[in-house]
Fold this sequence. Notes:
The complex is a heterodimer of chains A (110) and B (117).
Chain A: E1 9-12, E2 18-23, H1 29-32, E3 35-39, E4 46-49, E5 63-68, E6 71-76, E7 85-93, E8 98-101, E9 105-109
Parallel strand pairs in A: 1-9
Antiparallel strand pairs in A: 2-6, 3-4, 3-7, 5-6, 7-8, 7-9
Chain B: E1 3-7, E2 11-12, E3 18-25, E4 35-41, E5 48-54, E6 59-61, E7 69-74, E8 79-84, E9 93-100, E10 111-115
Amino acid sequence: QAGLTQPPSVSKGLRETATLTCTGNSYNVASQGATWLQQHQGHPPKLLSYRNNNRPSGISERFSASRSGNTASLTITGLQPEDEADYFCSAWDTSLSDQVFGGGTKLTVL
Amino acid sequence: QVQLHESGPGLVKPSETLSLTCTVSGASISRSSSYWGWIRQPPGKGLEWIGSVYSSGDTYYSPSLKSRVTVSADMSKNQFSLEVHSVTAADTAVYYCAKTGVEMDYWGQGTLVTVSS
């Protein structure tokens, strides 16, 4: 069972903007920040953002993350076909002493 | 360029022990001040953290798996390992070794481990 809550699926059109959400609580997202991962079918996850909005080198500026209270968000602008993937959020939970994940959101680019 | 590679049996019998090793190249697990660990993904499902070892050798485990899991490191070989004891079909998953913690920027390709008699 997932520790963080993500919508199972989001569909958007080519070149549109998608905002994916990840809801936790005061022990994880709100206090520790969220990490966002992208996973294409058959491949390992890829880091997109950590501590809410730190992007590793090589990650497009089209990906931006933010947090408001217990909810973290990942915004993808100018959607491209290659953005179609599963997106997972994660955070350290200080109450559980556990690295918790969301169940993942499948992004479809129409 | 940091690379991680998982190795170990792809088939384990129920009640036995699943053992995997991750070999790291391009970074020193003992000098990186980082967490190195294991994350698994059952077929068609989400990600689950199993446990990690810090550069100091300290280990950390998911509370839900702690009683059955051992993570260890061989700093001299730049490797870290996973043991899951008393496996059942529910342990069937792709097992990834990765740099864990906040900045999960390095992952192995993953190895499918099936628990079946």
